[in-house]
Amino acid sequence: MKITLEDSLVFHLLALFVLVVFYSIYLIKQWTQKRRGIQTMQIGRRKDAGSHRVETLMGIATVGIIPIQLLSIIFGWSNLGANARFTGFCVGLMGDLIFLVSVLSMKDSWRAGIPDKDKTKLVTDGIYAYSRNPAFLGFDLQYIGVLLMCFNVLTVISTLFAVLMLHLQILEEERYLIVTFGKEYKEYSHRVYRYLGRRKG
User: Fold this and answer.
1) Rounded to whole angstroms, how far apart are CA atoms 175 and 80?
2) Which residue has the higher pLDDT, 192 or 8?
3) 42 vs 192, which has greater pLDDT?
4) Exposed (0-12), middle (13-18) or buried (19+): which is 178, by Cβ within 10 Å?
5) Can you tell me the distance from the alpha carbon of 141 to that of 61, in angstroms, rounded to the nearest whole number?
6) The pLDDT value given to residue 127
7) How far is Cα of residue 107 from the mean position of the Cα atoms in its chain?
8) Neighbour-count burial of 55, counting CB atoms closer than 10 A to its CB (0-12 exposed, 13-18 middle, 19+ buried)
9) pLDDT confidence of residue 2
10) What is the pTM assigned to this prediction?
């Protein structure tokens, strides 16, 4: 379905809305934790080379995608029709909602990156009873949503890179959680899937 200039402007604003809501959630959570003396940003603090490398690349991917998304919105770089763009808005909004619920469920245990010294709790209730990584799922849905709204070569490449690096970060975090929480985390990971869903019984 072909879209008019007026429709295109609406989709630009909707894409911008998805981004503003998502990063507002992130920054507000970080600010509220800082007020309580909690250092949210832990990316790249681990000393082991594997974790440090993955977190550094993840940081580059997740920060680097933002200007690409914004430029795609501002200049209207999109090759898809209205139906795909509206689907993208719904997917992006779902990502915002899942991300919000996940950071609220984590309370003061939420960190960006693997904590080096902080002691946090293993959260397994709320949305974490249905996904072991809902915050990352929220990131992925937001990226895919904006990709559908602003589909071009740059957003495709940056989205694929960001989603890949987030997945590698999940694998690093799983290793850390097994060492930190042992049997409790192993039992949890048998009950709940990495991204979405849980086993019966």
Assistant:
1) 39
2) 192
3) 192
4) middle
5) 15
6) 96
7) 17
8) buried
9) 57
10) 0.92
Among 57, 53, 63, smallest CA distance to 26 is for 63
- 63 C-beta neighbours (distance < 10 Å), count: 11
Task: Say what the pLDDT of residue 125 is.
Answer: 93
Q: According to the model, what pLDDT value does residue 51 have? A: 80
Task: Check residue 76 and report its DSSP letter.
Answer: T
| pLDDT value at 108 more than 80 | yes
* pLDDT tens string 140-168: 999 999 999 999 999 999 999 999 999 99
Which residue's structure tokens are 């997917």?
A: 91
Query: What rounded mean pLDDT belongs to the chain?
Result: 90
Q: Which long-range contacts (CB under 8 A, 24 or more apart) does 89-92 make?
A: 89/11, 89/14, 89/15, 89/18, 89/145, 89/149, 90/145, 91/141, 91/144, 91/145, 91/148, 92/15, 92/18, 92/22, 92/141, 92/142, 92/144, 92/145, 92/146, 92/148, 92/149
Q: Please report how the helices 5-35 and 49-74 are oriented relative to each other, as an axis angle in degrees rounded to 10.
A: 140
Cβ-count burial 137-147 (b if 16+ within 10 Å, e if not): bbbbbbbbbbb
Q: Which domains does the chain have, with CATH numbers?
A: 5-40+48-110+120-191 (1.20.120.1630)
Q: Give the tokens for residue 36.
A: 């309580």
The secondary structure element, H or E, covering residue 128 is none
Q: What is the pLDDT of residue 36?
A: 87
